[in-house]
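User: Design a sequence. Structure:
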């Protein structure tokens, strides 16, 4: 199914900085980025930046002080609100910093830090419960793609991650389709593959959470998004945004991605 972007879904371009930049470097990057972003694009597109936890407070202060056209995002969260969870950060702690978007279930967390569909589901609910928007990541490995199991893998992750989430909450969410083989590799899914998977995700949301949720949920593509491939990705009917890793660390490159050409 291909609900058109004319149905009111506002594009969202998100920069996932991963484990990069000290808080001082982060301030510098965010200031350069604010300078590079065109008001004509930020008036019609949402932008979020996701620094490491140690830079959230500094970046929040800069964004708020200068009323910059970017929302603050986090890269992960724990699902409990407080308690004996050494090293973890809770949803209310992020919400108090004006964090609006939280990445949940990134493939690096699933592959390297034991994140499961069950913990992703708990985190999605906790983020929503704290009034923030989850960006829930799904995606297949190269072996799964070559075995023809892409949709099965992605739709299973989708179902498990959204289990028990109310339709109006699903409608407000973001789902990022990130083929694992495309992350940080310089390889991007072809536009037709990206559209096929994002179309399948939207159809599954319609089937399980209703037509309104399916029409409203925003879908991002992620995996080696760069200034030279963003235009064709954003032209796809079911792609409403991008989750950008490496290229988001360079303010002028990220600003060029945010300023993609409408088709
Ligand atoms: P990349 O990362 O743009 O560096 O491929 C994307 C991501 O991991 O979200």
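Assistant: Done.
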């Amino acid at each position: 199914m291909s609900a058109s972007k004319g149905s009111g879904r506002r594009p969202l371009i998100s920069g996932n900085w991963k484990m990069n930049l000290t808080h001082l470097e982060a301030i510098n990057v965010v200031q350069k980025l604010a300078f590079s972003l065109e008001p004509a694009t930020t008036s019609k597109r949402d932008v979020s930046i996701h620094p490491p936890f140690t830079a959230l407070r500094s970046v929040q202060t800069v964004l708020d002080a200068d009323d910059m056209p970017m929302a603050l995002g986090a890269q992960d969260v724990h699902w409990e609100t407080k308690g004996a969870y050494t090293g973890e950060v809770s949803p209310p702690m992020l919400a108090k910093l004006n964090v609006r978007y939280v990445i949940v279930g990134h493939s690096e967390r699933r592959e390297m830090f034991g994140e499961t569909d069950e913990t992703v589901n708990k985190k999605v609910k906790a983020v929503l419960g704290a009034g923030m928007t989850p960006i829930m990541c799904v995606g297949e490995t190269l072996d799964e793609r070559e075995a023809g199991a892409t949709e099965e893998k992605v739709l299973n992750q989708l179902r498990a991650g959204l289990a028990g989430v109310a339709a109006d909450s699903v409608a407000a969410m973001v789902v990022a389709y990130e083929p694992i083989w495309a992350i940080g590799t310089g390889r991007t899914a072809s536009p037709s593959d990206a559209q096929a998977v994002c179309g399948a995700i939207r159809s599954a949301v319609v089937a399980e959470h209703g037509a309104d949720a399916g029409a409203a949920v925003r879908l991002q593509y992620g995996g080696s998004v760069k200034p030279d491939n963003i235009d064709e990705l954003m032209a796809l009917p079911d792609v409403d945004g991008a989750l950008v890793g490496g290229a988001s660390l360079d303010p002028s490159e990220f600003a060029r991605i945010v300023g993609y050409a409408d088709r």
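The radius of gyration is 17 Å. The longest helix spans residues 191-209.
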